[in-house]
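WARN no homologs supplied; continuing
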Amino acid sequence: MTQPTFVLIFGPPAVGKLTVARALAQWTGFGLTHNHVAIEAALSLFEFDTEEFRRLVFQLRCDIYSAAAASELPGMIGTFVWNFASSRSKEIVHSWCNIFRQHGWRIVFVELKAELETRLQRNRSPDRALGKVSKVDPEISEAILLANERDWVMVAPEGLVMVPPADQWISLVTDALKPEAVANRILRDARLPERLFASS
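OK structure emitted
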């Protein structure tokens, strides 16, 4: 039996995480939960970034990953905006990795990068709000994107040490690539099982 794989796709807002993840999930048959599944659920109860909001988002994500890790799924894909200046972000990722490690899963980190102008253009696309109610207003989502750009460190620093480490770390610049091409690179580089033929 092939070892199941947890693929964590991370990068700044509007870099293409969810679009890439959807293509990858279609080709592999992996489960998929994106960053906003838990966020939108928590926003129906609590204000953004309150302690109650953060606690619920974390718990929901852990519950989803725990269910996936204990299942017969061939793999699981998640997306995340990782703030490398935040110890909390690191602790969150560690918690997710530990969930999958306990069940013998392989872990692949995929870092997506793109220039700010590229991401601002993508943020204005109507598809950006699919599954993300809080992103429907492009002016609000752009303000959040710019605030993240100003206040967060969303590109992995050189020499980053993760314990436990990922089994593989893939870094891709997405400015000039279509989402399907990015997903195909991940599929090939991480040697993920294919459910459907993926063209290059």
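The CA atoms of residues 12 and 148 lie 8 Å apart.
OK
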